[in-house]
């Protein structure tokens, strides 16, 4: 049978009365089945209250909260110059340059690609492009085309023509040989070796001696100076006197 619970008396302490009152409120069958004393039941009640309080605190602190983000406005750039600044002063120039729009990107290059390419024509290429880019834009060079004469790494110039497959330009023509002096005479100061060999008794060796003397001693000032050239004696000098100048 369940243990008997004494009724609280008027002279009992308050805590004893509360314990007894709580024990009396439990069903008799529960007290009998669990065999719990009123003190144990009171401890369980306190434990439940503590657990409930902890759960409420955890729920309250873990609830989502709105976060306010502080925004700061960047300082406004000065738009007006002081009225007392002269228009040609450095400060006025700096303000004008700050308000001016930034320069646009470099203009494209327009080139004419002609010759042995797949699609000759005029092409617009980005600034900084090179000859190889222009050839590629025209579909590439035709098979078997010799492009050795082209510097494909050269930067393009706006408005130029790229001629693919053209033979390399010939070098500058040699200067024309000096014409013979008036009267059919040959100038010993300007004549070449071939022209000197047209003189009687002058071969390649003697012509070279005349040119060597001219280069070492300067231009001839008189016909008689030919006698100082190795290989020219008095007789040969007499033969050349009327043929040179």
UniProtKB/TrEMBL annotation:
InterPro entries: Competence_ComEA_HhH, Endo/Exo/Phosphatase_dom_1, Hlx-hairpin-Hlx_DNA-bd_motif, RuvA_2-like, Soluble_ligand-bd
Keyword Signal assigned: no
SMART domains: HhH1 (SM00278)
Gene Ontology MF term list: DNA binding
GO annotations of cellular component type: type II protein secretion system complex
GO BP terms, alphabetized: DNA repair; protein secretion by the type II secretion system
Domain of life per record: Bacteria
Residues covered by the Helix-hairpin-helix DNA-binding motif class domain: 194-213, 224-243
UniProt name for this protein: ComEA family DNA-binding protein
